[in-house]
Amino acid sequence: MGRTLNGSRRGRVAAALALPIALTLTLSPTPVLADPAAQSSEVTPDRQPTTEQNGVALLRIVVPDEAAVDELNSMGVDLAEYKKQVDGGLEVHAVLSPAEAQSLRDQGFDVRGSITDQGDFARNQTERRQALAAEAAAADEADTLTPLRAEWFTSLDDQRFLSVEVKSSATDATTVLTATWDSGPRTAPDSGGTATMSRFTDAGQYMYHRFNAPLPITQAPTKVTITSSHGGSVTVPVTKWLGEKRKPPSKHYVEDFVDHYMDPTEVTGRISTLAKEFPKISQIIDLPYKTNGYRRAAQAQFGTAAASTLYVTSKAYGSEGGNDLSVALVQPAAPSSPLSVAVDGKNVTVSLATDASGAAASTARQVVDAVNANTSAAALLTAATYRGNAGAGLVAAAPATKLTDNLKAPATVSRQPFQMKALRIGKKRDGSKVGVFLYCQEHAREWVTPLTCVETAERLLRNYAHDERTRKLVDNLDIFIMPTVNPDGGTYSFYDYNMQRKNMTNYCAGTNSGDPASRNSWGVDLNRNFSVGSLFDGYSGASSSCTSGTFAGPSELSEPEARNEVWLTHQYPNIKFAMNTHSYGGYFMWPPGAYKTQGRELLPRVDYGTENYFWNASTHILSAVQEWRGTGIWPGQTGPVPDVLYSAAGNSADEHWFNRGIIGWDFEVGADVYNAETKQFEPVGFQPDFAEGHEEAMEFANGQIAILEVARSFSEDNDRPRSKIEVTGRTDSSVTFTFSTDEPANVYYTLDGSRPTLSSPKLAEAGMREGAQQITVTKETEVHWFSVDIAGNVENNYKPDGHSDNYREDKVKVRNVR
User: Fold this and answer.
1) Would you give the end-to-end CA distance of the chain in angstroms?
2) For the range 469-474, what are the long-range contacts, defined as Cβ-Cβ under 8 Å and sequence gap of 24 or more?
3) Which first-to-last residue range defines the signal peptide (predicted)?
4) CA distance 667 to 700
């Protein structure tokens, strides 16, 4: 219930809001408040205390400074214990009725949307009742525990870790799972240790239980037992994760070709030089869409308080003449002078109006309108009030100020639209070989990723002549490497703002976020700009705000960088595999990558055979990563994107998979490093010191080479899969079975004695990370089926679209004991 703003606590709000607000012109956003001229001098009560809750909500209020917070307190506003710095000053939260909120708005306070209201209260109460009912029901019977994964692995310095994932049929929040494990063969079941598992939820839905981070252990366990607070229990074997033995390269194999972080200009020059050095097995592809360029309009800002502040923006980019412009605000010596604007070449002079006493009398709005109305000035620049402010404050004189684009890269870095390039590697580059697309640095601040792509290119070209393993890859694949998808943003990250994520295209121009203080927030998140599962389709994980870190752009594929990726996969339809390399965190993921938060509605999951293919390949790929220095990517950070990370609406892997059928993975290089002293995993960040960045580039270049090995095996796969029925359960009146295959493959089956085809039911996944679907029959059933692997090989060379009958068949018999 909000406190009534009674007469004994009349506000002195107008005085507080009229205080000067210092503006930082190019560094950080500045407070924005309503026009003081529109504020009344008091807060007038219009309701008395009541016990009614209707309409009361927890609302956001943005104030300029601590003095205004104190003023709210003195007025008796029911403030929450919350305060944080935001673009408009300070955000505080208050419990207010609609009348109280309106009263504050009338006094000039910036009262914004609700955090929670009575609707939330009602929902919480309903959810609580449902949860209590579920808990009561769950308490009456033991839950069923479904083991998903149980593995041990090593990472750096051979430290062992345990990772376990289990799903409980009791999904309520009170369910507690405890894991207990042995310390090796023939040891006591609890000799290894015991730990409580954490409940993993996403988009409000229970997923499964796991450890927040893999647990350090001293001995490799053979079994782990998980028990539930509801009485369920299950014991499963613990298998080793990673460590697959790969054929070593020849003794002449060379690696380690990067020795410093490189900006996009340098990276692009590097692959161009490689193509010239190795013209017989490589070439440069100039991608058709040039970027916007490392360039910005030039700007200048004038004023020390929001209402009296204005800024100007050049029509031309700074590098194309905008940086040569200047604006001066002068105060004539004569009284009662009119406001005027004069232009002399590239110099704009605004003569402020004066009153009868000779004092400056032009408001920010008047100056802005005068500049924009002057034909000569408007040809050079535009003017705006500060973030949409009414501009009623008086403008002070200011000396001639040069406009600047604020870009700091050296002159050797071009400001023109960037010609993006891809390096194509292969002995036979005519489309007849399986294509693999490796691309890096969609996000500008991820400096390690282009090094990974460059290192892979160097290894392939420089080892071709003397390493048989490399020669087989280059001879039998068509490899496309794009080391920097985001060259403009990458340059901005190197020289201007290292945390830049997006490209540099400014869709905030002309909006309330177009002032210089927002310059580090402009741009489009390229990995949210694609056309599948996008923000525009209602999927989660992207934003429509031009200053958001995940801004999806004004439309799907609005950005040339994204269109270049799509063009490449369409221009070269032989591309069947792809790898998008990001940082950081140490993840290995695949589609689908997006869902709608409401109901956690995912893009369609890949079929069961393809899912197994992803998992099977991950063992080979991540073992290669581990070979460099021992880094183990966690099992819990391996899998489809939404299972292990979050929804990423409009990402490129979904674009390539759903539109082109390209089997694509996502690396997040930079796995957390385990600190043996603190017994904690420590993150490495986007731009670790180069010693760490170098190691990350080396180990994940290993991973990219392993992806090429997976693709080569695919291209040479002529082996037909084999499958069989496995009975997994029996009762007196039913049999439960599934199918197993000797390699990742899809199984098509019928239960009615008919001939199976590609339109028949397909074996599905039982659930997320739960293995194969279980099929139950209650009478003797004749099962017909066949399997197809990812390369298209069909079991027994059966022709599902023909008339042959060499499919697999078996009878499942039910006891029917009475």
Assistant:
1) 67
2) 469/247, 469/249, 469/250, 469/253, 470/249, 470/253, 472/712, 473/705, 473/708, 473/709, 473/712, 474/281, 474/425, 474/426, 474/427
3) 1-34
4) 8
Residue 475: enclosing H or E segment and its boundaries? helix 468-476
Residue with tokens 């540099």: 504
* DSSP class per residue in 393-462: SBPPPEEEEE-B----S-TTS--SPP--EEEEE-S--SS-SEEEEEEE-SSTT-THHHHHHHHHHHHHHH
C-alpha dist (Å) from residue 570 to 154, 315, 435, 601, 655: 41, 36, 12, 29, 12
CATH assignment of 7-120, among 3.40.50, 3.30.70, 3.90.79, 3.30.420: 3.30.70
| Dist CA 761 CA 80 (whole Å) | 57
Query: Residue 77's pLDDT is what?
Result: 85
Alpha carbon distance 559, 561 (integer Å) = 5
DSSP H or E segment with residue 86: strand 78-86
769 neighbors 208 (Cβ within 8 angstroms): yes
Domain residue extents for the chain: 7-120, 145-240, 264-291+415-514+526-715, 300-402, 723-812
Give me the DSSP letters along 279-313. Answer: TTTEEEEE-S-----S--EEEEEE-SSGGG-EEEE
The DSSP output letter for 10 is -
CA distances (Å), origin 450, targets 177, 264, 490, 601, 676? 42, 8, 10, 34, 30
Is 668 in the active site? yes
- Look up residue 759 and give its two tokens: 């339109």
Does domain 145-240 match CATH 2.60.40?
yes
Task: Write the CATH number of the domain with boundaries 723-812.
Answer: 2.60.40
Q: Which of 100, 668, 699, 795 is an active site residue?
A: 668
Beta bridge partners of 196: 178
Tokens at 82, concatenated:
């919350």
Residue entry with tokens 């390399």 = 581
Instruction: Record the tokens describing residue 324, joined without a space.
Output: 């040569």
For residue 587, say if its preceding peptide bond is cis, omega within 30 degrees of 0. Answer: no
379 touches 409 (CB < 8 A): no
* Distance between CA atoms of residues 222 and 499, nearest Å: 44
Closest CA to 309 of 20, 106, 546: 20
Residues 520 and 308 sit within 8 Å (Cβ to Cβ): no
Give the strand pairing for 198-202 and 233-237.
Answer: unpaired
Give the gyration radius of the chain's Cα atoms.
32
Kindly state the tokens that stand for 37: 């001229």
Residue ranges, the chain, pLDDT below 70: 1-54, 120-121, 124, 127-128, 131-132, 134-140, 816-818
Report how far apart, in Å, the C-alpha atoms of 439 and of each of 87, 292, 623, 646, 695 are: 35, 20, 21, 21, 19
Burial letters 141-178, b for 16+ CB under 10 A, else e? eebebbbbbbbbbbbeeebbbbbbbbbbebbbeebebe
Is-contact 27 307, C-beta < 8 A? no
Q: Residues, the chain, total? A: 818
- pLDDT at residue number 128: 67
Instruction: Look up residue 419 and give its two tokens.
Output: 């010609």
